[in-house]
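Good morning C.,

I know you're traveling, so I'll keep this short. The sequence:
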Amino acid sequence: MVGLMAELDRTAPRIDIQADQIELIDGPAEFYTTLKSMIRKAKRRIFLSTLYIGKTEHELISAIGHSVRTNPDLKVSILTDALRGTRESPEPSCASLLASLTEEFPERVEIRMYHTPNLTGLRKRFIPKRINEGWGLQHIKLYGIDDELILSGANLSNDYFTNRQDRYHVFASQRVTDYFANIHNAVCSVSFLLKPADTPAKYTLEWPSSNPAPSPLTSPEAYIEATTSLLIPFTTPPNSRPRPKTDTSLYPLLCQPPNLNTELPALRSLLSAPSLCAYTFTAGYFNPHPEITTSLLSIRAPGTILTASPLANGFYNSPGVSGLLPAAYSHLSLGFLRAARKARARISLREWRRGTVGEPDGWTYHAKGLWVTLLQPPAMRSAAHHQPGDTAAPRLPSAEAVGGEVGPCATVVGSSNYTKRSYGLDLEVGALVVSSDEGLMKRWKREEELLVARSRVVGEAELAGKGRRAGWTVRGAMWIVKILGGAL
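The C-alpha cells, ready to paste straight into the viewer:
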C-alpha cells in the first residue's frame, strides 16, 4: 500500500479524511431523497454539476427555490451541458426549466452551460441534435450543499431518481466539498451564461466578457488553452506533503481533453499494483480506453467486469441511430473477451439486468467504478502507514482481512465511463479513495456485492450467437462515428 500511495501522491492531489465521513447510498430513490433533504437544509451554497436536469423535474426546482426564499444568504450555482441541456428547444427543455429559476432569483441563482470546443462550424450545423453529444460533453456530476458533497455518475432526472442504477458517495467534509466546488466554479467561468428570455425557447445563452477564455464556438483552440491553464492546478500534486494521519485518503481526479487527465494514470497505478489480488471493474457502457484494456488484460489476479445487459442499456429500443448502441456495446464486449482469452487473463464478464427497459419494473444500469483488493504481507502491512521512528500502531488491517474477508481497500467513483470518449472529448471528475478502515471496506464490499447479485456471467459463445452478434449496420455506424471524430 505504501508504494501505491507514493505513486498516487505523484499523480494527483490528496485530501485526508476519516472513513466515517463517507456514506454510501444504495439506489436511485435514496439518492433523490438524500439530495432533496440536503437542499432543504442548505444555508450558504448549493452547487450542482450535471449533464442535464430533466425538463419535468419541477419538484427538484421547487425545493431549490424554497431554500433560496427562506435563506437570504444562500447562493445557487448550476452547471449543465449546453448540447444536452438545449436538445429539445424550443420545446420545454432543461434550459427553459432552469431559466424559470434564475428569472425569480437573478442575483442569487446562476446557470451555466458548458459547450464542447470539438463541435463547431459545419459539424455543429449538420450533425443531428440526437447524436451531436458524441463530440464532447460536460459530463461532471457533483452535488454540493454547504459542506457536504455527493459524488456520483447519476444525472438529475426521473429515471436517475427511480429506476436507473448508479453509484453514490456522500462526503461530509468541508475540505472535500470546497475542493470540488472550486472545480465546479472554474468550469462555470468558461461556460455560457443562461438568461431568461421572452422567446419560444424561454432563454438565451450569452458569453460574458468576464469569462477568462474566448468562446469555444469562435476560438476553440484558444479556448482549450485558456481552460487548461485554469484547470491545471486541480491536477497538480504538491512537491511534498506529510504522511496521512487519517485512515482514509481521497485523490480528486479530473479529465479535460486533450491536455489534462489524472484519472487514467491513477487507474493504471491501481491495476498494476503488485499486491492486487482481486478487482471488479464496472461501466454501464463497456468500451474501456485502450490503456485500461491493456492493464486489465495484463492482470494475473482474478477479476470481474460488470456491465449492462442490452436489456438494461439506456439506449435499448431508442429511436434512430442511438438504438444501435446496445448491440455495439455487445460487439465490443465480445472483442474484449476474445482478447482476454488470448492473454489468458482470469476475467469474468457479467451483465447486469433488472427487468427490461421500457417495461413495467424495468431498470437501466449506469454504474461505473472500480473496487480493488490488495493483499498486504505482514512486512508491507507494517510499513504502509508506519515510518521509522513512529510510535503509533500500523493502520492497515490484517492480511486475511485485505485478502477478501473484509473487502476492497480502494475504489474509484465519479462521472467517467473510462472510454476513449471520456478521455478524448468529455469533461470528467471523480475520486480515488483509499482506506485502511475495515468498516468502510465492508461497506464497499456490500456495495459491490449488491450490484453483482443482479448479474450473470456471459461468454463468447453467447455474444457471438444469434440475437447478440452485431450486424453490418451496427458496425458501419460505429465506423462512421469514428471517421467523423466522435466516440462511443
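Safe travels,
E.
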